[in-house]
Write a structure and sequence with these properties.
With 202 residues, this protein is an alpha/beta fold. The chain contains ten helices and five strands; from the N terminus they run βαβαααααβαβααβα.
């Protein structure tokens, strides 16, 4: 079977990063987190300018082209081509979704999984992340920024999820509960999507 290609969508605090790492490990695919790449001092963080760094610290989205170029470069590497990937934090805009479709043509994506978590739970988790990580490690997690990010993210995720839904690629998964149980739900959704594709291709 061809390499597995998954996009994971969800609000910050929905457990996207945790689940993406677990999926990468369990399926042997590559975890691609644009946020991690952009924060990595030895990676993309070194090549983006001070203006982009300020945007990242403020929790504001970077320009589409910067992030699209970053993802395009990563998707073209051998490990991703051979093993497949789970994308975490991309696409965040319709322009990014269009660009991803072009980058993945002709094979396309297997499935986009939207992790659904009640807003109160997301706020609790983000509050926990702030107190656990200390003030300096994630400056974009400062209180006011979190609330602003969350409102913006709800719109973003809604639009991007709509883009995938229109193309029959979206599956919603309940993101509340034990980490292991959520991973299992995602795996069921991913495996079902792959089976459907294999049947359609026969
Ligand atoms: P994240 O860890 O995914 O929340 O990303 C941290 C920050 O990196 C975001 O607040 C943005 O400044 C930037 N970033 C990450 N992914 C994207 C993206 N797909 N489009 C634009 N900016 C992004």
């Amino acid at each position: 079977m061809a390499a597995l290609r998954v996009v994971l969508l969800g609000l910050p605090g929905a457990g996207k990063g945790t689940q993406a790492r677990r999926l990468a490990e369990q399926y042997g695919i590559v975890h691609i987190s644009t946020g991690e790449m952009l924060r990595d001092p030895a990676g993309a963080a070194a090549s983006v300018g001070p203006q982009a760094r300020a945007s990242i610290d403020a929790g504001e989205l970077l320009g589409d082209q910067v992030v699209i170029d970053l993802v395009a470069e990563r998707l073209a590497r051998d490990d991703v081509i051979q093993r497949g990937f789970v994308l975490d934090g991309f696409p965040r805009t319709l322009a990014q979704a269009d660009a991803l479709a072009e980058l993945l043509a002709p094979d396309g994506l297997d499935v986009a999984v939207q992790l659904e978590v009640p807003l109160e739970l997301v706020l609790d988790r983000l509050a926990g992340r702030r107190s656990a990580s200390g003030a300096a490690s994630r400056r974009d997690d400062a209180e006011a920024v979190v609330v602003r990010r969350l409102a913006r993210h709800e719109d973003e995720v809604g639009r991007v999820a709509g883009w995938f839904a229109e193309r029959g690629m979206l599956v919603a998964v309940d993101g509340a509960g034990q980490v292991e149980a959520v991973t299992e739900r995602i795996r069921l959704a991913v495996d079902a999507a792959r089976r459907e594709q294999a049947e359609a291709a026969d």
